Amino acid sequence: MQDSAPSRAKRSLGQNFLVDHNIQRKIVDALGASDMDEVLEIGPGKGALTRHLAGTVRRLTLVELDDILAANLQERFAEHSDIRVLHADVLDVDLGGLFDDLGDVLVIGNIPYNITTPIIFRLLQRPRPRDVVLMVQAEVAERMTAAVGTKGYGALSVGIRTVARVQRLFKVGRGAFRPVPKVESALVRITPRLPEPLCPEEEVRVRKLVRATFQWRRKQLRKILRDHPSLSLDVGRVDAILEDLGIPPEVRPENLTPESFVALSEALG
Ligand code: SAM
């Protein structure tokens, strides 16, 4: 079964509505929420996923930026005390302040592709939700899950995997959306690691190291650590640390595992 084609989708808001009911249900099933769970849906739009969640979970919070779609959802769920609709930009919302304990919350969304990375890193700021299921561009899903040393492996892969586990669940073809997007999509699950693998200060340091090294991904690690303006480390110290960790100085960032980035960051202090 399919929904009818929506009118006036806004490209600026990344509106590609999911019209295939089987896929809608499959996505909601992948979240695995029970009637004990609190769920946050990002970008509910016309309610493609919402319709399968409403009434099945303890509490549902919808965050939608589009004026008309948010107003429609507010009207549609006005009588539902277990559903709240926020007309807001998800990137501006204080997620920690929205819930008693964000660590208990499950997040779902067929999100706008132009802000996929900011949304993911927003969700991975502390406090973090319990689990996240998102529809992203297939190519982004590949980068998130890319093996070390492959073309897709980069700052996104490492940034996410130092604090969470990522799984690519299944692909969704372009025909499941209206309007039909130019690219294929995939559903991913991002599960923040518990206990927290890094302290907050360490997280900031790792992020800085990862960002700087991948800006110069073709260069050798030793040279990046020495020459990158945001690192500028003493070469003698760099050599000693790399030797200590058993990391060859000529290695390129794309060949360093997330664990090695963490170990290197910790050693650099
Ligand atoms: N979930 C619906 C579906 O599957 O059909 C809509 C998906 S559409 C790809 C993305 C939705 O996110 C749109 O409804 C859009 O208006 C909304 N949106 C775009 N930017 C947003 C933002 N910054 N914060 C919250 N919602 C946003």
Structure write-up:
The chain has 2 domains: 182 residues, Rossmann fold, CATH 3.40.50; 69 residues, Helicase, Ruva Protein, domain 3. The protein contains 11 helices and 9 strands. The strands form 2 sheets. Strands 4-3-2-5-6-9-7 form a 7-stranded mixed beta sheet. Strands 1-8 form a two-stranded antiparallel sheet. Helix 5 links the parallel strand 5 and strand 6. Bound molecules: S-adenosylmethionine. The site of S-adenosylmethionine has 25 residues, from strand 1 and strand 3.
How do you describe this structure in short?
With 269 residues, the protein is α/β, with parallel strands linked by helices. The chain has helices at 21-31, 50-53, 67-76, 95-98, 116-123, 138-145, 155-161, 200-215, 221-227, 235-245, 258-268, and strands at residues 17-18, 38-42, 59-64, 83-87, 105-110, 131-137, 164-172, 177-178, 185-192.
